[in-house]
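Continued from yesterday's entry.
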Amino acid sequence: MIKKITKKALADAYVERDLSWMYFNRRILQEAEKPRVPLLERLSFLGIYSNNLDEFFRVRMATLSRIAECEDNALRRESKQAQQLIGRINKLNAKYVMEYEAAIREVTRLLREENIFLLKETELDEEQQAFVRRFFYAKLSSSISPVWLSAVKQLTEEADDNIYMAVRLRTAGKKKHDYALIALPVAECGRFLRLPDREGKSYLMYLDDVVRYCLPMVFAGLGYEDFSAYAFKFTKDAEMEIDNDLRNSLMQKISKGVKSRKKGDALRVIYDAEMPKEMVRRVMEKLNLDKLDTVLSGGRYHNHKDLMTFPDCGRTDLKYPAWPPIVKAGLENGTSLLAQVQAGDRFIHVPYHSFDYYIRLLQEAAISREVKSIRTTLYRLAKDSKVVKALICAARNGKKVTVVIELLARFDEASNIGWSKRMQDAGIQVIFGVEGLKVHSKLTHIGMRHGNDIACISTGNFHEGNARTYTDYMLLTASRPITSDVNAVFSFIERPYSPVRFKELLVSPNEMKRKFIRLIDNEIKNHLAGKPAYILIKINHVTDQDMVRKLYEASANGVPVRMVVRGNCSVVPGIPGLSDHIRINGIIDRYLEHSRIFIFAAGGEDHTFIGSADWMPRNLDNRIEVVTPVYDPAIKTDLRRVVEYGLRDTCQGRLVDGRGKNEPWTTDDGGHAPFRSQEELYRYYLANS
């Protein structure tokens, strides 16, 4: 008899999405604390942690705050739960801030041991002072625009992607201070100023300290004799207020929504703990905070996201060894890529393999007389997108080119609007997704005049920049059943409320969740019948309650469930009788794990899938996502290798336990045999190139 999971059992063993995100981001912080991680890479992880946290507060904490502040009686329960969750998150955040500051101090100390010195304004010798003054007059002075704090009505009218210096100025003989505000011009001047090297030593300054040194020059002629400056930053609500006026086009609504972000309420403030109390009071008055907002005193420097671009000072020995993209066996023989795919399925696993193979496929399609049409989905685009250039080339060569571009790709809306206009001007038909449903699927369909059409189904964006740092899997196929379904997805996007059935693909919001549940149910039945049964999954996020319940149900009935989960995870492994057959490994390494792979034993048949969907309500219910079966035996073997390597990772893997401990992973026998999945995959592909 199949064991079922009650609502209460699920509630007791379900980790809230935002709490699990905090645990995930801490895994990134733990990478910055590892002695064996190269020093400059540790700096980069500190930057990633900071950047992630900023976006979390802009989006997720903004949503929680809105719910917590809701006065609708019908939502009283949800409001109270949101308040409690905000409290738990703030408590974790305060704890992690202390770890973060300690990590910053330790890495800075180790940089000094490597002869890389970050100097404060008080530590400059005469030669360095002269260099800073020249920099001020040559570049910095024209980029600084101080504002008197008394003239600022609300700081929330200012952009929250800046670091601000609160400046206290005093005239000789006067007790009263004046206060000014300076937004650091990081975009124009960079966050770090590199001073001249000397005797094998490298010297740098935070722009914050450069400005501190230059304050007498900034306020020259105003009679001030004493200057002090303290950094602070704030994070605003970034959830856009989308205008529902039907007279406005979707593009106009998104454009207005992007502008509305500048007016969001402040949700989090971090300031220098050395800032005088009177100055703190004056700054806080301008931020219009309430009791649910986060206010933290911190160190001297903020916006540590800039550590991701810390100058390497020529010290490549303090970074990961270069892993150039590997030549893909079979794709470098000079023959047509279109013909190769028509002859049999191919795959590209970036960044191990070069994303250029996909661009070459588009470029060949753009000039091939055999190609009549190209249709693709674009979610995020590189700054100088070669993908778009290839599509424009195809349109100019008379191909019918259709691009579905998602205007609601968070923080990339303005860029996507700009690209949309360029493509429209080139004669490309641009479709702005489906109102009410984000188009998150990663699909390309190439229509051929003769022979089978070609499809590319990817786990990640068609984005050259992402493809250098995100692990994503791309299936290139000419299988008629699959290419026909891909074609039907584009028809569905163009006519989203017309009835459509997919024979091969799992498509949300249509039937994806139901089909995944059926696959899990099948594993349970097979296990109880004595047939081979297991579930292997590599995914970014698992928070959908129906899917969490099904995973618990599989485990409670004895089905082994092994998962590699990078981010949010609402599953708690190891609960006796409920999840003791579930193991979850969370990997943080030089590449961001992004591919979604699903493998089911299916009684020995081994059903394998890849696609764009995580197991979250937004992916399964509110987005157009696509997951495809994989039939080619060699590709299925490679996908299994990817997942199994991830499960074996003891170097970069952390035990995802639902409690945030993030303990190092061990082998089945309790050992710590070192195994680093990304390095082993790179070696494997290199040996077989």
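--- second protein ---
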Amino acid sequence: MDSFAGRKNIIRFLIILVGLIYIVRLFILQVVDSSYKLTASNNVLRYETQYPARGLIYDRNGNLIVYNEATYDIMVNPLQLAPFDTSEFCSILEITKEYIDETIKLARAYSLYKPSIFLKQVSSLAYAQLQEVMFKFPGFFVQPRTLRKYTYQNASHVIGYVGEVNDKIIENNSYYIQGDYIGVSGLEQSYEEFLRGKKGVNIYMVDVHNRIKGSFNSGKFDVRAEVGSNIISTIDINLQKYGEKLMQNKIGSIVAIEPSTGEILALVSSPGYNPELLVGRSRADNYYKLNVDSLKPLFNRATMAQYPPGSTFKIINALIGQKEGVTSQYTTYGCQGGYYAGNFRLGCHIHNSPLNLSQSIQISCNTYYCNVFRNILDNRNYPSVRMAYDSWRNHVMSFGFGQPLNSDITSELKGLIPTKEYYDKIYRTENWRSLNIISLAIGQGELGTTPLQMANMTATVANRGFYYIPHIVKEIEGNNKLDQKFYKKNYTTIDSVYFGPVIHGMELAVNGEPGSGSTARTAQIQNIIVCGKTGTAQNPHGEDHSIFIAFAPKENPQIAISVYIENGGFGGTWAAPLAKLMIEKYLNDSISQPYWEEYILNCDLINKNAKKSQHLE
């Protein structure tokens, strides 16, 4: 009897144990482990990301520059795949069987449950053909997207381009997933968060043939996409087009700024490229071709090229000399074809002598600025040349040199204004002299400045001592203000009273009488007072670079400009007349002397210098 009772208890225990196992297992399946629920849901539900259209981009006058065009991505959900007619599928999409096999393999490796991109950017025609027979291809569905389109084939470095996110971006920003697109350069990158909008999602119920049967729960859990904000840029697209036209067959850049706001009117880097090349399925191939091009069209020379400023830098030394009390508008120096100090000689062209400060800018006398620069560094108010140099460097830095301007333009380089420690290492002593670095007097030596910095310096002179950070966006739809830094005046260390003689010299450089030695008479415009300064940057690799900076009109300036033409020689030969055309085009919307336009357009410095280089070899 006891034995029977024992067996009975064992059977009862086993029954209870099995029951508990089932209960625990059901609890895990239904509450803890959601994988089966997910599998079931994925068999009947489709989650389609709704990508918003990126914001449109306009120029300062309301001209549409960038808009969107519909395109379609073919998505694949590996869990829903079933045998299908690959021949018909390949014919519609113009792909191979090998592409299908390889892409599906990658999709399965990524996730069995989550859809991934099978084929990007399918045309509207292919989409229409596929949509009619979509039921034949279970596991595939179409996701609408947009591609950037361009009204003009210009301003590629300003606008930038859009590309697919990589693993690093996905890891650092939870907003993006595989297959998303992001601004890669230019305005598209700087204002990505405004332009991209906000993604949404639609949840659909599908049948066994992967056909949509309706919204899940009447769309209760759908999230609507929010379209990106439109942006009004500061660019004058007609001026930009004109600048790119003038720079054809030349290497260099043009940067034009409105001094009273810091708004960039034109930013030309030449050679450039058609922005359409970096859109669509051929983007990768086109990018490779542009990247290996020896002329480097992807390189933004306006913000990344670093050149010696040449004689345009004499303006800075004239201002610092006055501020430091070692020169004035009445100070004169004679010039006998160069600056002499013992056995040292720095040459200068033959001109009238002696000259005062304004005349020294008009005629661009090297000797004058060697004297000014040495007086700045040998100033007895400082205990050493090193300390005087530190003060000089701080003055220069206050104009925005030697540091990023902190604009909204991507890939902006800072240039180089050497520290005193830099020269300590060069000369292996702290007792170097002003004569050791005399080349800085005329904008040569170790100085490196970008065209953007030079245009900003010109705007600073036009404003008589302050600048607004240069920027390329004027207004963002739905936002009353840009970053506050763009509305702040950045003052230099130079008092406004010292700018008058310098500006007068710049006026004389352009508008001086014939035979007066003015270096920039090629920049004259009838009825507009242009104030400018030529420069020639020494180039150890070939012919010197042609430089010109200017602003106009003299009173209430509306445009400040810097022009760099690599291997162009003297500043007055190519850069000055090109700047003249840009200024007149902006202020008058016409050209009064079309022969200057023809002169610039017919200039092919790329092939000219290439032939010269081959001849020398």
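The chain has two domains: 47-233, 237-616. The chain is about 35% helix and 20% strand. Will compare against the first tomorrow.
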